[in-house]
Amino acid sequence: MLMPTFILLGIFVYFFLGKTIYYSTTDWGENPAQPALSETVIRENIGFENYQNLMTDIIQAMFRNSLTNMFFFFVFFVIGSIALGLLLTIILDQKIVGETFFRTVFLSPMALSFVVTGTIWRWLLQPDGGLNALPTVFGLEPFRFNWLNSQEIWLQFTWDKVPQYLTFVGFAILAFLAVRRALHQDWRSVGFMGTLAVMMLIIFAAGVWDRIWLPLDVAEAEPSIAPKGFNAALVGIIIAAIWQMSGYVMAIFTAALRGIPEDLREAAQVDGCSNLKVYTHIILPQLRPFVISTIIILGHTSLKIFDLVFAMSGPDNARTVMPGILVYTKGFRQNSFAQASAIATIVLLFVVIIIVPYLYIQLRRHD
Description:
single chain, MetI-like fold, 2% strand, two-stranded antiparallel ribbon, 2 strands, 15 helices, mainly alpha
């Protein structure tokens, strides 16, 4: 009974994944002497040259810009969706009048596809209408923000500083985990994390990062596009994505709340806990596994985002470009199938980095 499923998965998932990775190591579409769509095209294996070009070639600066956009979209989309979804859950948990009606309203955006959501929000974010014209209803001056075409860059940074940022983030994560383990008196884990921190410090102090980190987008190499940062044109896309997915987060958290015994709340209230303490000390800790699952699902969605961005700003807007958009433009417009496959493989790698730890935690919990 399971064999047909395994066969279909093997062909239409893993076989084509393998073909994509293989094509990413060829010159398919990059060799002018071999037209990409020719029946007799010969694909020469060039190793990791496509990946190197994507990360270092000035012509491929759009790809590095898409990585930056993907990172900021991931961070703000996940945080915004969880925060708004949790807020809606707490509001509905107050037994308000019309709870079922409001739950349906909050969840209804999930019934729409990202293409429909993108079309709606593209109308709402027009420079001379939509949200910009809202103040005129109250006799005020309209907003002048270019939601999808803004040239502003916030939180600017340069690529040569990224190793330093990664090192500091690593120290912060290790310190947080070490404190948690110390509170549980798990001194073996604390020692292991301390060893990792010392190793990271040695790597940073020895300048190893300078030998393995590619000199990307430095001002001397690419003065027209350095430094990187959070493109303000992404704000509208992030708002639209949060609007659609926050109801989904609310549904997950609401289902989780229904599984928390009412006796716990009543006992806490009898002991003198305020409503705020009930949420902070009882309810929110119970939601932690669901928060982790939600982060994984939203993170997976944000890394592969394509249709929402395509519908809102099109495939040629450099300020809002994502890796998924580049897979489309390079593969179906430029016939650069090797580079499109390399970009898709890089996105797959990011997805695996997020999914594998989650699967490990879930399997370990079931054991």
